[in-house]
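Could someone model zinc ion with this protein?
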Amino acid sequence: MIPSPNHESRAGSRVDLVIIHTAEGATTAAGLGNYFANPAVEVSSHVGIDDSTTEQYVSYDQAAWGALNANHRSDQAELCGFARWSRDEWLNNHRGMLDRAADWIRERCAARGIPIRKLSPADVDAGASGVIGHVDWSLSNIGQGDHTDPGPGFPWDYVIGRASGGAPAQPPAQTSGAGPFPLPRNEYFGLITGPAASHGGYYAWEKPHIARIQRALQAKGYAPNYASWADGIYEQPTANAVAAWQRREMPGTTRFGEVWWDDWAALLA
Ligand SMILES: [Zn+2]
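Reply:
Sure, complex below.
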């Protein structure tokens, strides 16, 4: 713990919100703690999270100073990142921070009896209990302030999915070429017409990943070998090629035609 003097009594308030911020400067939880340790800055959070550590600054029985009139009713974490970061930057280069944030959300929601769900500003105004970004408080009618963190690229779906899905703390073993699986462990690449857990290229960020899968299928001889086949959209021909590869090379597959984390690691190795 790196104690911060910047806190106050909760004045009897019930805690019903979990708030995520980005620190917009500090790149380590230790550095952020040193900043919050200065009484002159008059800001703080309960914890700071970087790619490999989670550091506590303020006791949970106290109100941290991060979100003006939400302070009494919230547990708050500052991520050592920036609101300008893209979704790819978060998912590809700061997975450790996201995983730690998800674990922290799960812990605080359990401790407070808060549902693990992302709230909109309208939900906040309706008095709902859940998880928000600082921006959601700013945009609500009851919230003071104008901060926009953790930014439009923050991958809430990944973080909430992991927080609520109970995914293992350890990422899957990766072979060198594949890189990190870009989805929560309980989701997969599959038909664009599939359920919410099936990522099929509906969103732009999914397409490069699907194109990688398609090119790997081409390289292994499971798909027609012309460039436009790898279009980043997961439709039935892609599912068929994945299933053909799985029958040959992934014995034990139970969900043919879908690329889960283990398929990803093997196919892109
Ligand atoms: Zn903030």
